[in-house]
C-alpha cells in the first residue's frame, strides 16, 4: 500500500473467522432447526445431531462450515446402542418427522433417550400436546353429590294391584296373554289413561308422554281389542263371525323411519300371537314394490307404513282398499313434520276421508263393534308449531291425553298449552366440559371406564351428528383382526370387536354402527344384533336411532355431538331409563359459548352440575390401554409411556392414533382411515352449523377452533374443502342415488336411504319433483334441525 493511502486498523480476536451461512428454501421450521444446530456447534456443544440445510448460497458452498452442515452429502444418522433395526432420529429430524407424519415404527413407546441429545429433550420422546393452549372453562365445577335416595321412576308400570289390563276394558284373553307371554303385569300411566278412552269412545286423541312409557301399546291394544270383539263376546265365547286377513284393512299406523316401523310391527306381532287370524304387515321400502303388493293382495288387517311408500301404494296399488279403515295412527308426529312429510300426510288423510266408510265387507260381516267414524290418533313428544299444524290437518274434536292426567278433560290440541317434555326422573344426566383437542381421548376413556366392571354397563349408545363421522369412529375403534377374513356376513362392515375400550373384566366388547346411508337389510340386521347381544356392546349411530326405538338394557347414552335441538336431545337420552329402569346420559360440551347450552337444558329438566374431563381421564386411563391386535408380533400389545400417568397415557394414545392414520396412507392400505377422518371432519363442521336458530348462539361456528377439532379426528391439521358443500358421490352403473338397481322403487318414503355427502342422513330416494320440493322446504325451514338437513 502506498504512503498516501488510507490505513484501516482491524481488531481481530484470537478466534478463527467463520463465515455466516444463509439457509434458503424448504420450510421455515427446517431452516430454524439447521440454524440452531449450527449455533450449538459454534458454542462447542456436541449434540450429535446431523441437521442438513436444504440449500445454501453457491458462493458459500466451499466455505468453512460446521461439520454437520457443510458437506454436500448429508452425514449418516448415529446408531443408538442396542437398536439394531431402527435408529432413533435426532431432535431436529424427529421434530420434522412429527410435522410430516413420517415417524419410525415404535416411536410412540417412550424409551430411554440418547444422553447426547442435549437438555431440550423431554423424557418420553415425542408427545402429542393435548393439555396446552386449551380454553379455560367458565363453569365452576362442584363435587358431585350422590342422592341419598334414588329418584322414583316416572315411566314405570303402576304398582297398584288394582290396576291391571283387564280392569282397563281389555278381554281376559288379552290380559292373560300380556301377563304370561309378555310379562306385563300392570299398565303405565299413559296406557291407563288411553286404553279405556279408545275402547269406549270414537274420539280422536293426541297422546303425549315421556319416552319409554309405553305409548305404542297404548294405541295398539284398543285396536286389537275392538277387532277381537267382532269374533268374541266379553266372556270369550265365539260370536260366530269369522275374522281373517281378507276381512278388510282396519288400521294404518304411520311412522317416520323404517326402524321405528319395524319395531312397531314387532310389538304388534307379539301381541297378536294369541290371535293368529288377525294379520299385520309393513310397507316401508327397502324391497321391491312387487313383494309388498303381493302381501297386500293376500289381505291385511293392520298396516304399518312410512308415509312416502304408503302414498305410492294408494296411487298405484288397486288392491289397497281404505274403505274399511277405522284408525289412522300418526306416531312421532313432530318427527314426521320435521322430515318433510307434510304433503304426503295431507294426501293420505284426504284420500282416506274421501273414501266412503263401509259398514260391512264383501263377505257380509257387519262392523258394528268397530268405530262408526274414522279415528285419528296423533302421538308426539311436544306441542310444537308443526305438530299443531299436523293436528289441524288430521284431528277433529281430539282429546289430549298425557301420562299424568285422566285424559277426560275434553280439551282439543289447539286449546292445550305447550307442555314441557321432560326426561324420566330416574335418568342421571352428566355434562362433560371437554376441550376440542381432548374429545377423542376423553370418549375412549369414558367408554373404557364404563366397561371396567363386569355387568355395570351392558349396552351403550354413542350419538354422532353425521354418517361420515360414524363410519370413521367405527373403523377407528374396531379390532378387525379378531374376526376371520373368510367370514362373510351381511353385518361384516357394521359389527366388529372393539379395541381401546376393553378391560380385564370385559375382554370382548362388541362394536356396531348404524346410520341411514346403510342398506335396509344391513340396518335391520345390525339393530337386531344390538338388541339380541348378550355381550357388552356399543352402538355408534346418528339420530336415526333417537326416536321411538326400544332396545332392552341400554344403560348408557353418550351424546358425543350435541343434538340439533333440545327436543332431539330429550329423545336421544330417552333410549335409556325406559319402563322404570335406571339409566345414565353423558353430553360432551366444549368450553366457551357451548357452556351456555347447559343452562338451556337445565331450564327444561332437573338441574345437573357439569363435570370436567379430568376425572374421566383419571378413571379411564388408570390402567394401560389395549391397542388393536398388531400386524407384527414384535409390536407391543399395550400402550405404555415412560410416565405411567393418565395424562401421559392420553398423549401417547393420541400420538398412536395420529400415526395409525398416517400409516394407512403411507402403506397404501385399503382401509384409507386418513381419508375417512378428513371426510368425517368436513361433515362434522357442516353439521355443526345447522343447529336450530334459537340455539346457534351456543354453537357458534365462528368460535370453533378448526385445528383443535381436527385433533379430535386424529388429524394434525385441519383439511380444506369445508365450505365446498358435500362431496360428489359416484354410483355404479345400473344404480340410482338410493343405492337400488334401476327398476326398483324410487319412492322409498323413509328419508333414510342414499348418501349425499355422507352427512345428509335419512334423505329419501324419491322422484325428482318430490326431492326438489323437499329441498326447497328444508331451506325455508332452517330453524328445524335434524341429521338430514346438514351440508
From TrEMBL:
<feature type="compositionally biased region" description="Basic and acidic residues">
    <location>
        <begin position="70"/>
        <end position="91"/>
    </location>
</feature>
<feature type="region of interest" description="Disordered">
    <location>
        <begin position="23"/>
        <end position="159"/>
    </location>
</feature>
<dbReference type="Pfam" id="PF00271">
    <property type="entry name" value="Helicase_C"/>
</dbReference>
<keyword id="KW-0698">rRNA processing</keyword>
<feature type="domain" description="Helicase C-terminal">
    <location>
        <begin position="439"/>
        <end position="629"/>
    </location>
</feature>
<dbReference type="InterPro" id="IPR001650">
    <property type="entry name" value="Helicase_C-like"/>
</dbReference>
<feature type="region of interest" description="Disordered">
    <location>
        <begin position="624"/>
        <end position="646"/>
    </location>
</feature>
<keyword id="KW-0539">Nucleus</keyword>
<keyword id="KW-0347">Helicase</keyword>
<dbReference type="Pfam" id="PF13959">
    <property type="entry name" value="CTE_SPB4"/>
</dbReference>
<dbReference type="InterPro" id="IPR014001">
    <property type="entry name" value="Helicase_ATP-bd"/>
</dbReference>
<keyword id="KW-0694">RNA-binding</keyword>
<dbReference type="GO" id="GO:0003723">
    <property type="term" value="F:RNA binding"/>
</dbReference>
<protein>
    <recommendedName>
        <fullName>ATP-dependent RNA helicase</fullName>
        <ecNumber>3.6.4.13</ecNumber>
    </recommendedName>
</protein>
<keyword id="KW-0547">Nucleotide-binding</keyword>
<dbReference type="InterPro" id="IPR027417">
    <property type="entry name" value="P-loop_NTPase"/>
</dbReference>
<feature type="domain" description="Helicase ATP-binding">
    <location>
        <begin position="196"/>
        <end position="401"/>
    </location>
</feature>
<dbReference type="InterPro" id="IPR011545">
    <property type="entry name" value="DEAD/DEAH_box_helicase_dom"/>
</dbReference>
<keyword id="KW-0378">Hydrolase</keyword>
<dbReference type="Pfam" id="PF00270">
    <property type="entry name" value="DEAD"/>
</dbReference>
<dbReference type="GO" id="GO:0016787">
    <property type="term" value="F:hydrolase activity"/>
</dbReference>
<feature type="region of interest" description="Disordered">
    <location>
        <begin position="715"/>
        <end position="766"/>
    </location>
</feature>
<dbReference type="GO" id="GO:0005524">
    <property type="term" value="F:ATP binding"/>
</dbReference>
<feature type="compositionally biased region" description="Polar residues">
    <location>
        <begin position="44"/>
        <end position="55"/>
    </location>
</feature>
<keyword id="KW-0690">Ribosome biogenesis</keyword>
<feature type="compositionally biased region" description="Basic and acidic residues">
    <location>
        <begin position="738"/>
        <end position="759"/>
    </location>
</feature>
<dbReference type="GO" id="GO:0003724">
    <property type="term" value="F:RNA helicase activity"/>
</dbReference>
<keyword id="KW-0067">ATP-binding</keyword>
<comment type="similarity">
    <text>Belongs to the DEAD box helicase family.</text>
</comment>
<dbReference type="InterPro" id="IPR025313">
    <property type="entry name" value="SPB4-like_CTE"/>
</dbReference>
<dbReference type="GO" id="GO:0006364">
    <property type="term" value="P:rRNA processing"/>
</dbReference>
<dbReference type="GO" id="GO:0005730">
    <property type="term" value="C:nucleolus"/>
</dbReference>
<comment type="function">
    <text>RNA helicase.</text>
</comment>
<feature type="compositionally biased region" description="Basic and acidic residues">
    <location>
        <begin position="27"/>
        <end position="43"/>
    </location>
</feature>
<feature type="compositionally biased region" description="Low complexity">
    <location>
        <begin position="109"/>
        <end position="125"/>
    </location>
</feature>
Amino acid at each position: 500500500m502506498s504512503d498516501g493511502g488510507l490505513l484501516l486498523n482491524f481488531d481481530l480476536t484470537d478466534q478463527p473467522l467463520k463465515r455466516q451461512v444463509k439457509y434458503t428454501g424448504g420450510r421455515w421450521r427446517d431452516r430454524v432447526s439447521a440454524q440452531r444446530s449450527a449455533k450449538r456447534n459454534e458454542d462447542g456443544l456436541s449434540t450429535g445431531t446431523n441437521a442438513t440445510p436444504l440449500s445454501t448460497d453457491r458462493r458459500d458452498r466451499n466455505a468453512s462450515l460446521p461439520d454437520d452442515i457443510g458437506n454436500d452429502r448429508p452425514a449418516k444418522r448415529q446408531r443408538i446402542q442396542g437398536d439394531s433395526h431402527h435408529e432413533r432420529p435426532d431432535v431436529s429430524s424427529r421434530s420434522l418427522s412429527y410435522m410430516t407424519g413420517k415417524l419410525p415404527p415404535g416411536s410412540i413407546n417412550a424409551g430411554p433417550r440418547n444422553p447426547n441429545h442435549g437438555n431440550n429433550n423431554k423424557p418420553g420422546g415425542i408427545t402429542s400436546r393435548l393439555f396446552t393452549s386449551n380454553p379455560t372453562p367458565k363453569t365452576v365445577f362442584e363435587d358431585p353429590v350422590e342422592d341419598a335416595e334414588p329418584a322414583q321412576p316416572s315411566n314405570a308400570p303402576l304398582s297398584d294391584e288394582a290396576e291391571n289390563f283387564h280392569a282397563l276394558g281389555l278381554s281376559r284373553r288379552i290380559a292373560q296373554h300380556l301377563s304370561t307371554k309378555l310379562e306385563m303385569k300392570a299398565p303405565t300411566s299413559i296406557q291407563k289413561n288411553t286404553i279405556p278412552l279408545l275402547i269406549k269412545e270414537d274420539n280422536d286423541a293426541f297422546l303425549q308422554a315421556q319416552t319409554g312409557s309405553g305409548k305404542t301399546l297404548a294405541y295398539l291394544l284398543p285396536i286389537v281389542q275392538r277387532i277381537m270383539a267382532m269374533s268374541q263376546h266379553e266372556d270369550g265365547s265365539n260370536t260366530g263371525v269369522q275374522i281373517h286377513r281378507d276381512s278388510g284393512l282396519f288400521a294404518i299406523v304411520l311412522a317416520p323411519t323404517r326402524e321405528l316401523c319395524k319395531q312397531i310391527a314387532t310389538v304388534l306381532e307379539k301381541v297378536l300371537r294369541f290371535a293368529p287370524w288377525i294379520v299385520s304387515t309393513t310397507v316401508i321400502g327397502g324391497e321391491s314394490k312387487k313383494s309388498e303388493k303381493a302381501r297386500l293382495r293376500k289381505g291385511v288387517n293392520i298396516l304399518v307404513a312410512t308415509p312416502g311408500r304408503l302414498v305410492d301404494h294408494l296411487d298405484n296399488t288397486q288392491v289397497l282398499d281404505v274403505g274399511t279403515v277405522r284408525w289412522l295412527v300418526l306416531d312421532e308426529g313432530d318427527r314426521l313434520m320435521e322430515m318433510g312429510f307434510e304433503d304426503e300426510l295431507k294426501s293420505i288423510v284426504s284420500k282416506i276421508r274421501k273414501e266412503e266408510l263401509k259398514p260391512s265387507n264383501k263377505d257380509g260381516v257387519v262392523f258394528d263393534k268397530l268405530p262408526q267414524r274414522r279415528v285419528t290418533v296423533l302421538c308426539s313428544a311436544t306441542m310444537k308449531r308443526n305438530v299443531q299444524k299436523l293436528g289441524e290437518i288430521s284431528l277433529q274434536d281430539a282429546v289430549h291425553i298425557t301420562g299424568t292426567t285422566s285424559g277426560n278433560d275434553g280439551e282439543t290440541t289447539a286449546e292445550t298449552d305447550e307442555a314441557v317434555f321432560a326426561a324420566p326422573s330416574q335418568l342421571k344426566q352428566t355434562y362433560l366440559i371437554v376441550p376440542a383437542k381432548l374429545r377423542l381421548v376423553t370418549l375412549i376413556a369414558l367408554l373404557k371406564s364404563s366397561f371396567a366392571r363386569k355387568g355395570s354397563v351392558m349396552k351403550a349408545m354413542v350419538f354422532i351428528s353425521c354418517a361420515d363421522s360414524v363410519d370413521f369412529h367405527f373403523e377407528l375403534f374396531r379390532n378387525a383382526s379378531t374376526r376371520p377374513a373368510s367370514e362373510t356376513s351381511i353385518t361384516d362392515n357394521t359389527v366388529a370387536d372393539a379395541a381401546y375400550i376393553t378391560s380385564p373384566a370385559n375382554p370382548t366388547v362388541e362394536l356396531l354402527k348404524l346410520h341411514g346411508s346403510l342398506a335396509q337389510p344391513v340396518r335391520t340386521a345390525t339393530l337386531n344384533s344390538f338388541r339380541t347381544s348378550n355381550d357388552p356392546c356399543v352402538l355408534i349411530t346418528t339420530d336415526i336411532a333417537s326416536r321411538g326405538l326400544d332396545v332392552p338394557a341400554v344403560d348408557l347414552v353418550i351424546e358425543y355431538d350435541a343434538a340439533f335441538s333440545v327436543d332431539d336431545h330429550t329423545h336421544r337420552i330417552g333410549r335409556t331409563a325406559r319402563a322404570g329402569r335406571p339409566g345414565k346420559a353423558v353430553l360432551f360440551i366444549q368450553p366457551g359459548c357451548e357452556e351456555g347450552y347447559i343452562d338451556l337444558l337445565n331450564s327444561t329438566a332437573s338441574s345437573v352440575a357439569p363435570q370436567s374431563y379430568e376425572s374421566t381421564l383419571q378413571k379411564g386411563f388408570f390402567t394401560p390401554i389395549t391397542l388393536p391386535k398388531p400386524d407384527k408380533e414384535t409390536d407391543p400389545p399395550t400402550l405404555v409411556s415412560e410416565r405411567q400417568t393418565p395424562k401421559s397415557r392420553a398423549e401417547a394414545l393420541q400420538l398412536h392414533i395420529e400415526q395409525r392414520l398416517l400409516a394407512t396412507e403411507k402403506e397404501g392400505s385399503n382401509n384409507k382411515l386418513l381419508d375417512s377422518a378428513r371426510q368425517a371432519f368436513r361433515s362434522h363442521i357442516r353439521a355443526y352449523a345447522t343447529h336450530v336458530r334459537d340455539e346457534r348462539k351456543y354453537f357458534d361456528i365462528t368460535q370453533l377452533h378448526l385445528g383443535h377439532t381436527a385433533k379430535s379426528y386424529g388429524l394434525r391439521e385441519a383439511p380444506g374443502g369445508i365450505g365446498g358443500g358435500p362431496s360428489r358421490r359416484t354410483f355404479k352403473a345400473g344404480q340410482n342415488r338410493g343405492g337400488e338397481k334401476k327398476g326398483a322403487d324410487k319412492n322409498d318414503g323413509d328419508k333414510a336411504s342414499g348418501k349425499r355427502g355422507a352427512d345428509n342422513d335419512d334423505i329419501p330416494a324419491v322422484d325428482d319433483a318430490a326431492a326438489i320440493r323437499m329441498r326447497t322446504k328444508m331451506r325455508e325451514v332452517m330453524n328445524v334441525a335434524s341429521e338430514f338437513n346438514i351440508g
